[in-house]
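Quick question, first post here. What does this chain look like in 3D?
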Amino acid sequence: MMHYQFKDIILESEINDVKTLLEKNDLNYESNVTKTIGLYDKKKLVATGSIDHNVIKMIAVDQAYQSQNLSSKVLSHLLFDLEAHQIEHFFLFTKPENKKVFSSFSLNLIIETKDIVLYENREQNITSNLNLLAQNLPKKKSSRGCIVMNLNPMTLGHLYLIEHASKLNDDVIIFLVETDASIIDYNTRYTILKKSIKHLKNVYICPSTNYIISRATFPTYFLKEQLKMEVYTNLDISIFDKYFIPIFDIDMRYVGDEPIDPLTNKYNKMMVNILKDRLTIIKRKEITGKVVSASYIRELAYKKDYQTIKQLVPKATYKYLISKKGKKLFND
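> Answer (accepted):
Ran it through. Tokens below.
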């Protein structure tokens, strides 16, 4: 008879065992998770699973124990942990071949690609959540554009892209990345954006929700590790295509071209493949012969070069970066 025991994975030797088990199941270990558990048969690690904030992932079972229904045991244990931490909305990643393992749980299938399946708990439903958000927007007149932005921090390059889209459409929705995994928090980014676009009467701000560029859909954006990047990129854009475009009645998504960051450049290329003629790539704004990017502004902020920053960002960004709170963020 098997004697299974759950254990929180903490020690490096335990993490190495988890990595080995994941690799045997063709999965990657992601170091930023908030909790990893191991299921042991005596001293042998036979199953594992992890939580990254509200995302369940990296569930794997030793090949010799596949018939023991251990994936369900691991998931139940992780669900209990989420409940204990009062996390009401959660997501679950798995591989398409493991779908049947989780069929007995009350989960809502968000999307399935050839590589990955994403679920959420059924009480929280992507369609109803996005419909609720869309109902708060003014009625669409004719053409509607959209931009997904993080703004960490907002630059004149971002403003140029927004102004360009606003001229080409009756209205524009900016989906501001809601996940707080950037140096500047969501509420601050929202305030700076709102102040910077007050002259544009046809531009509206929406939180991006957990469904695009979030820990659930695109963790590599925040990890900056090449963990199956194409898999997550495809997932993120496919969700946008399947849900956001019809629910918000979007005609065109706008992005700036990406000559600097290879990750964003790959993301843009995949968007072209999936969205096709519903995507417009705008040439990035250059000031004094240099492409303006948020990463460059952060670099300047660490160097305390506020004179250069002033030329490259909207007033609201500059005021924040030279404030006591803004300076504190970029103190080494």
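The chain has two domains: 4-124, 130-329.
Residues 321 and 327 are 6 Å apart (CA to CA).
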